[in-house]
Write a structure and sequence with these properties.
The protein is of the alpha/beta class and 435 residues long. Helix content is 17%, strand content 22%. It contains six helices and 17 strands. The chain has helices at 28-38, 42-59, 87-101, 252-261, 331-343, 346-350, and strands at 18-19, 23-26, 68-78, 124-128, 141-145, 151-153, 182-187, 189-191, 197-202, 226-229, 364-367, 374-379, 383-388, 394-400, 404-408, 415-423, 426-434. Helix 2 packs across helix 5 (331-343). The longest helix is centred in the N-terminal third of the chain and has 18 residues, at 42-59. The protein is globular. The protein starts with 17 loop residues before the first strand and ends with a strand.
């Protein structure tokens, strides 16, 4: 299950990614194929980079329990009211993303028994940025009205034309520093000639380490991030069925594309001919010949193997399947994404862009941290304590009238939260972990 072919070992054709109703679920393969066509050496370097990452991941003898937090900014680039997805949809999408990556998704109970021992909590969380690149407060949602009806993914062009959404000069929104933020562009994505619909795509991480200079510069910093079609965001999106496709309105498109952003390949190893001869490199994802193709067919076993011949892992987020049928990452996939954050995107997890600037003149303390039930609050004056979850929602708001007070948090789900204290003197915040 660890066989690997070169990442672009197939001849490019848009139909390779196609599924029912002429949709193309993911533009990952297409984008990388275009880069390989116009940059000699990119194919071999990309493949070698992936092999090296697999080796580096496995050479680590321990799995740290540190939960990595990734600052996120959504660039909502809109032309019609439907494209301007509401805050409530963005917040819902953040909740889905964090549930999926922490294996807190309610449908985790649907993982088949043969895969339960490898189903993983990635210990990666995503937090809407609270500070923009200029140091100003933000809610992590950047809305940009455009005169463009759509951003076209021209599969016949040498250029990755949909990248125009990432630049204000072409009607899009400029990236916030990609080293410090995970940029997510939400827009109307179309395909040239009306040949189908791409729901999203992301570039893999560029290795900014010694001996990895050269052709990998083909992926410029300003385009790093994720693009998703506006209909796929969240599970409460009023425009969820505007793409005339059923099965992708559960918010899992972003879960899949962030996986690419953090170094994962499709579970079938991105090979579309004789797929059993290729693999994604992970031992705990069974070898499969092609995607599930949105069938939710859990009887498939498309590659027979010696020994423990497991069925296709159709519930894996890196397959093409209906959102309702996806429910897991594996442990090796989790290890790879954490390795990528540590080695290739380290500034993301070191950045303070999710922290509210503290006012030094305000005395404020909370304990214990981590907390299980009651949070003790010490402050020098009366004010308001607000507890904010990872999606940016205020889950607790309480007036504190004494210098020592308590906030009941026992009903909150386990995870990380921001606790903000606001008084006449200003605002201060700190981060807690609810056990």
């Amino acid at each position: 299950m660890t066989r690997l072919l070169p990442l672009f070992s197939v001849i490019f054709a848009f139909s390779f990614c196609a599924k029912a109703q002429d949709a193309i679920y993911c533009g990952f393969d297409i984008a990388l194929q275009k880069l390989a066509e116009r940059n000699p050496g990119f194919q071999s370097q990309c493949t070698e980079h992936y092999h090296n990452a697999l080796r580096g991941m496995r050479e680590r003898s321990d799995r740290a329990s540190t939960v990595y937090e990734v600052p996120v900014v959504f660039h909502v680039v809109w032309n019609t009211d439907e494209q301007n997805v509401p805050d409530s949809v963005i917040l819902n999408q953040m909740e889905i993303l964090n549930q999926d990556y922490r294996r807190l998704n309610p449908d985790a109970v649907n993982t088949r028994e043969e895969f339960l021992d490898v189903a993983a909590d990635t210990e990666i969380e995503f937090v809407l940025a609270t500070v923009d690149p200029e140091g100003n407060p933000t809610d992590g949602i950047n809305r940009v009205e455009t005169d463009r009806e759509s951003f076209e993914f021209d599969i016949f062009s040498n250029d990755i034309t949909v990248d125009e959404v990432k630049f204000s000069e072409t009607g899009g929104s400029d990236a916030w520093d990609p080293a410090n933020y995970m940029n997510i562009w939400v827009c109307n994505v179309t395909i040239a000639g009306g040949l189908g619909q791409i729901f999203g795509f992301a570039y893999p991480p560029s290795p900014e380490v010694p001996n990895w200079e050269g052709t990998f510069d083909a992926i410029e910093d300003d385009v790093q991030g994720v693009v998703v079609h506006y209909t796929t965001v969240g599970s409460n999106n009023p425009a969820g069925l505007d793409d005339n496709f059923e099965g992708n309105e559960g918010g899992r498109t972003l879960t899949h594309e962030v996986g690419h952003y953090l170094g994962l390949r499709h579970t079938w190893g991105d090979a579309f001919f004789n797929g059993c001869s290729a693999d994604d490199g992970f031992i705990d994802t069974p070898n499969i010949s092609a995607s599930n193709n949105f069938t939710c067919d859990f009887e498939l076993n498309t590659c027979e193997e010696d020994g423990d011949d497991l069925p296709d892992q159709g519930e894996n987020y890196m397959d093409y399947n209906q959102d309702a049928c996806l429910n897991m990452f594996t442990q090796e996939q989790a290890d790879m994404m954490r390795f990528v954050l540590e080695e290739f995107r380290p500034e993301l997890i070191d950045f303070e862009g999710v922290n509210v600037s503290e006012a030094e003149s305000i005395a404020f303390e909370v304990y214990p941290n981590p907390v299980s039930d009651v949070l003790n609050v010490r402050c020098e004056s009366s004010g308001w304590v607000t507890v904010i979850d990872l999606s940016g929602r205020r889950v607790v708001e309480q007036r504190v009238n004494t210098k020592a007070d308590q906030v009941d948090v026992r009903t909150l789900p386990a995870g990380s939260y921001i606790v903000q204290f606001t008084s006449a003197a200003g605002s201060v915040a700190t981060r807690i972990v609810k056990q």
